[in-house]
Design a protein that fits this description.
globular, 546 residues, alpha+beta, 38% helix
Amino acid sequence: MKKKLLATLLSASMVMGIAACGSSGNDAGAPASNDAAPKTETTTSNTTTSDAGSDAAPAIDTSEHVVITYMTTGGAPEGNQTDEMLRQLNEILTEKVNAELEVYYIDWTDYLSNYNLTLARMDGTVDLVGTASDWLDAWPNAKNGAFLELSEDMLKTYAPKTWESVSPEHWDLCKYNGNIYLMPEDNYAQWTNHGFAYRLDWAKEAGLANGVRSWEDLTTYFRYVKETYPDVIPWDSDGTQYATMVGGWITSHSNYVSIDGINSGAMWGGTKDDLYTVYSPYITDTDSLVEFAKTMKEWDEIGVWKTDVLNNTTSDNREDFKIGRVAAEQHHTQTWTDLCSHKDGYTIYDDPNAETGFFYFGEETGNLVALSITHGAMAVSAASKNPERALMVYDLIRNDPDCYKLFNYGVEGKSYEITADGMRKTPDGYNAATDGISVNYWWGRNDDLEIKDATMNWDAIEKLYKEYDAIKIDYPYGQFVPNVDDIQSKIDNINDIHTTYMKQIAFGKFQGTAEDIVAEYQAALEKAGINDVTAELQRQFDELYK
């Protein structure tokens, strides 16, 4: 199916997707390999020679010292090791490319507006820009001229290691109107697909020898916990997971692939067999929704959650899972990688038999979509006064082992140390407030240089990641930015209806039969214009993908 890029894109902010997951250091990435990227060569005359490709590249003039400013989301650090890390990093950057790096922070308060306003000023304030296609308006900013077009020659010359490491197929996903604007984070294992973490040892006690592998198994598990461990709440939900719950059910009972960024419920998409025919399972998959409603009513009757679940503002379910007060936590895979690891304070593991399994949504049908490679990406501001040097700095941070370790983990001996078996741990007496770093580098992490966190349960993590890799598909809609000006009011109404009804359905708090509540919900969606939205999205898909 031939692809072409949409000519007119949304200039306003998209509905916010999943925020970048993880920290400036990777606690749950795939294992690092032993293949460290070679360092960029430099000469004493402040010229740098690129080693991309087999042909010798001309020397690059780096005689003028420049400051490169990197913009990221998150609050500025106070009193930790960030300044010392940057001091050491800038010694290396000065030696290699005669540049130094400063960090420009966009605080989380009103972050998207402030982020876009900073870019729109076009005053040269920033050079490197952390961005994302699903939660930081990458494509609208590319369309509006905020990002610099990155030619192949430019990338080969000034970011040769990055150019070599990204496949042609992935570079294609970083193009707008045929031109590259983003450098993707495409070599970093980050799984934000949702599911349930649960006590695997208790599941085995319940007769589930292979653990929880389906929603039906979850029902068996929750019923067993309620009957066998009366002091344990099966899942102390705070009632906010309704959209994730029904979305997980649909993923698990179909081959639906949702489009990010249209509304918070991800209510439109294609299928693995027909990716570019748009539909909404919330209006078509009636039988499945009825079964979902029946199952949730059963969970409510079992007592999976508290009776006041929709008003439960005191729940601290994740922390309670760590100490054995609850039997499940619903969140994404990377959260599970933490919960399954035997860390200090996780008293659940005082029981030597305790294990934490993970049932991921889509497990029954093998329906798993990898996170978009532009969920985190780096761009260069079109107003940058030193775009070439900015690329050289990024290439080093992403690919040079010394730069990578500093920028991702901080100062060795203070922020982290390496164990005898080559893993990473915090030193004795470590205090995150004073000993950590804050650069929020979510735009170019590299599994080839990652150092495993010694506190993580890598046997379990790598086993699940291997299972994921065998069935995953790449997110197919990374370049699609819907123009919703004419349908936004309908999308808003649909979102309100979805929220109102799914709070009741997903926690079994509806009156009457499952058939009645689903029929009422779907009638409200039709009245709000869901079919009109589907038709308009299909029209835009046809322009982009056909």
